Amino acid sequence: MPGADLTTPPEARRGEHTAARRAPAWSRKLRRDWPMLLMVMPAALVLVVFHYVPLLGNVVAFQDYSPYTGVMASTWTGLVNFERIATDPNFWAAAGNTLMITAFQLVFYFPIPIGLALLVHSLLSPRLRLLVQSVVYLPHFFSWVLVITLFQQMLGGAGLLNSFLRSTGASTFDVMTDPDLFLGLVTAQAVWKDAGWGAIVFLAALATVDASLYEAAAVDGAGRWRRLWHVTLPALVPVVVLLLILRLGEALTVGFEQFLLQREAVGREAAEVLDTYVYFTGVVNSDFSYAAAAGLVKGVVGLALVLAANKVAHLAGEQGVYSR
Amino acid sequence: MTTTTPGTTPRPTVRSARASAKPTRPVWEEPPSALGSAAKAVLVAVILLVVLFPLWVVVLTSLSTQQAITAAGGLVVVPDGITFAAYQELLTGGVVTRAVLVSVGITVVGTAFSTGISLLAAYGLSRPGTFAHRPLLFLVLLTFLFGPGLIPTYLLVQSLGMLDSYSALILPGAVSAFNLVVLRSFFMNLPGELIDSARIDGASEFGVLTRIVLPLSKGVTAVVSLFYAVGYWNAFFNAFLYLNSTEKWPLQLVLRTFVLQGQPIPGVTQGAETVGAGGGLVATLAIKMAVVVLALVPVAVVYPFVQKHFTKGVIVGAVKG
What we know:
The complex is a heterodimer. By secondary structure, chain A is mostly helical. Chain A has helices spanning about 15-20, 25-55, 70-75, 80-85, 90-110, 110-120, 125-135, 145-155, 160-165, 180-205, 210-220, 225-250, 255-265, 270, 275-285, 290-315; strands at about 65, 75. Chain B contains 16 helices and no strands. The model of chain B is unreliable at about 1-20, about 270-280 and about 315-320 (pLDDT under 50).
C-alpha cells in the first residue's frame, strides 16, 4: 500500500468540515476503508509471497544458480541457458509432444462436452437430467492418481478387459504401456474425467436461449435439425470461441500429474511434456537454472499465446477472455 | 409441424409458465421418433455405465472375499460374499491409516484457511470505490494470466525452510483467484442497501460479513469450500515435490506408490493365493482396491450435498465475473 497517509494524523481533521473536504480523497477513503483493506491483506500476502516473489525468482534462469550460494551470490551468465535450450533436442521433443497432445485433444476432446450438453439439454424429465448431470460431473472431482489407477484396473495388462479377453482366449494388449496408443489414452482419460464438467458452461449457455426463438422458428417451418442449426448452435458460439481461446492460450500446458504419473510406464519418448521436462531437469537433476529458463520460455510463449488469441477474438467481434 | 394448428397457439405460453413444475413438450415441437428416443436412451445408459462401472467394480472388489476374487480371476463384477477385511487390515494402524489421517488433516486445515481468507478478501474487494480496490483486484486477477513457474516456486519453498513440512502443501496454493472471483461477484450482487443499513446500525465490516453477507451466501460458500477441499484432498504433486519422508505421505502418494506402481504396502499381510496369468496376490487386490475406495469416498460423499448449488453458485458467479 502507498502508506504516505501516516504523515497526516487523522484526528487533526476530525470535526473540521471544510478541512475534511479539502483533505485528499484517498486519505478520507483510507480512513473509511481500512477494515476492508485489512480483510484483503491475508489473501494478498499469500499471493505476493507465493506468486509474485517466485515470479522474480525467475532471474535464476539468467544465472548459474547453486543451492549453496543462493540467488544473490550466484554468478550471472546472461543468455547461456537460453542458447542451450535452442539446441537441446530433449526440450524440443517435449515441446513437440505437448503441442501434439493439445492438437489431438482439440479435435477429439473439445466437441464432446458440447455434444453432452446438447444431449442433457434435450432430456425432458428433470429427474433424469439431474441424474445424468450428477454422474457425469463426478469424475472431475477425482484426483489424477485415482483416474489413472481406475484406467489401469480396467484396461491395463492385469485389468478387467484383459482378464476377460484371456478367459475368452483372445489375445491381450496393454493400453497403459503402449507409447503408440498414449495420445488416445490420455485423451480418453481427459474425456472420462472432465467432459461432463466441461458441459456445464454449454448447459448454462443453452439455458439462456429464448424459448420463443424456437417457437418462431418452428412456426416458420424449421424442423428439429434446422432449429438446432439456426437457433441452438449460434447461441453456443461465444462460449465455444471463449473456450477455444483459453485452450489455445494453454497450448503449452497439458497438465502435470497425468503425464508425470504415466511417464515411467509409457516411456519418455511419448510421455515427456514441457512441464515434466522442467521438473526432471530442474528438481531431479538439480539443473535449476536451465530448467528455470525452460519454464520461463514456456511461460512467456504461453502468455503471448493467450494475449494473441484474445486479440484475434476481439478482431472477430467476440468478447474474449477479458474486454478492453 | 403437423401438430401445430392455429387453435392451439395460446397454449404454449400457459404451459411454459407451469414448465418448472411439470415439464411438457411445447405444442409446436414434434414428438421424437421411436428410433430417436431409443438412441437417446441407449446413449444415456452408455454414458452412465462408462462412469459408474469402474467405480462399481472397484468398490465391489474391495469388499470381496478372497474366494470371490480368485473365482473372478481378478476384479469382481458380480458380488459373491461381502467382507470388510481389507478395510480392517488397512485402518488398524500402519501406513494407510496414517496417510488417511494426514489427508484428512491437510484437507480440513487447508480448506478452513483457504475459504476463510478468500471470504475475507472477496468481501473486502466486493464494494467498488473502496480504497485501493482496483490495484488489489488487479493483483488477484493478474495471477490468472501467468504462473510463477515450477523451479522458482520450488526454490522459494526450499529457502523458506518449508521442504518436508505440511505448510508446503497448504500455503503455496492457498488462494485460488478463480474461487475468489466467484465469491466476489456473488457478494457484489447482494443488495447494497442491506449492507449500508447494517453499517448505519453500527456493525463493523467484519460483523457485516459474518452476520449479513455469509448467511446469504451459504450456497456459494459451500461450493467454494468443496473446490478447495477437493483440491487439498486430491493434491498429489505438491506432496510428491515437497515431502521427503514416507511417514508424512498423504493418501494420494500412497495410492500412487502401492496401487498404481504395485509396490507392496509395508506392514500389510499379503495374501498367499495367486491368479494364473493375471499375476499379483489376490488378497492384495482387495486391499489395493480398498485404498482406491478410501481415496474416492470422501469426494463422493460430500459431492451430492453441494451439487445442487453448482449451477446457481458457480455459473452465475463465473459468467458475471
